[in-house]
Design brief:
This protein has ten helices and twelve strands. With 295 residues, it is an alpha/beta fold. It folds into three domains: 70 residues, Arc Repressor Mutant, subunit A, CATH 1.10.10.10; 99 residues, Periplasmic binding protein-like II (D-Maltodextrin-Binding Protein, domain 2), CATH 3.40.190.10; 100 residues, D-Maltodextrin-Binding Protein, domain 2, CATH 3.40.190. The strands form four sheets. Strands 4-3-5-12-6 form a five-stranded mixed β-sheet, with helices on both faces. A three-stranded antiparallel β-sheet has the order 10-7-11. Strands 1-2 form a two-stranded antiparallel sheet. Belongs to the LysR transcriptional regulatory family.
């Protein structure tokens, strides 16, 4: 069995059409059909059901497709890591972060790493937690900063700090002086993170509102914490955001009230690959863990 057999198989599995698959692979259809037959004979398993109208994967074919995709992902990861080892401490180092934790600490991290590794091109990406986990598993980033929980056997997690929550509101529209007045907000409209973008975080916000005795009227949703704060500033509602946002926001129109009564916090974690033992990764993680930063 050769890699080309697997590539040809994936092309047919994705297209479910031999003509389209052959066009995609820039080969004629007869050689493609022969390669698939050779593969099936070697595996002693029928991978496709073929008739005049359509091509379908058999149950064995569906299983094989899933495993072959994983195999190619691992090959890509191995290739990237091999290249990185060969480059030693040159090349790229990609760091992803969620919008709700960006601060001067991350800028300080890049400056610190550039001094230690001057030949490395450091890149920052604002990416959701779910996409960061996928990217790290596939070797597309070297480090991520997320809000836990995380469930992946391929990833190592380091707790950076725990964050509380605060109500954020426009001072010109709403008069709010203390946490005791939170229930007065039950008739207000809310701006929340999109449920599909950050499902765990969305659920936490609903739990917070339930604790204070009301269900929020969610009118607007956004995928970026800065967009949420801007919508609040524009008078389109109020929101609940991580408390560290208040430390980085000096806008006189925006007010924050920390929710201290409820014992609910989120873990902000640094994630790396379990297989990554590079000096750059160790230096980056140690810098953040030793920095008080947002804590």
């Amino acid at each position: 069995m050769e890699l080309r057999h697997l590539k040809y198989f994936l092309a047919v599995a994705e297209e479910l059409n031999f003509t389209k698959a052959s066009e995609k692979l820039f080969i004629s259809q007869p050689p493609l059909s022969r390669q698939i037959i050779e593969l099936e004979e070697e595996l002693q398993a029928k991978l496709f059901i073929r008739n005049n109208k359509k091509v379908e994967l058999t149950e064995a074919g569906k299983y094989f497709e899933k495993e072959v995709k994983t195999l190619f992902q691992n090959l890509e990861r191995i290739s990237l890591k091999t290249k990185k080892i060969a480059e030693n401490v040159s090349g790229e180092f990609r760091i992803a972060y969620i919008s709700s934790i960006y601060s001067a600490v991350i800028s300080d991290l890049i400056k610190h790493l550039k001094i230690q590794f001057p030949y490395v091109n450091f890149k920052l990406f604002e990416v959701s937690t779910t996409k960061q986990i996928d990217a790290l598993e596939q070797g597309k980033i070297e480090m991520g900063i997320i809000r836990s929980p995380i469930k992946s056997p391929k990833i190592k997690s380091h707790l950076w700090f725990q964050d509380g929550f605060s109500i954020v509101f426009n001072k010109n529209n709403i008069q709010l002086k203390s946490e005791k007045e939170i229930l007065n907000l039950k008739e207000e409209t809310f701006v929340f993170f999109n449920k599909d973008y950050a499902p765990h975080y969305h659920e936490v916000l609903l739990e917070l509102c339930a604790f204070y005795g009301f269900t929020p009227k969610i009118i607007h949703e956004a995928n970026n914490i800065n967009s949420i704060v801007q919508l609040v500033k524009n008078g389109l509602g109020i929101s609940i955001v991580p408390s560290n946002i208040a430390k980085n926001n000096q806008d006189p129109e925006i007010g924050f009230i920390e929710l201290k009564k409820v014992n609910l916090r989120t873990d902000v974690s640094i994630i790396t690959s379990k297989e990554d033992e590079s000096e750059i990764t160790k230096a980056a993680v140690n810098f953040l863990l030793n920095k008080s930063g947002l804590r």
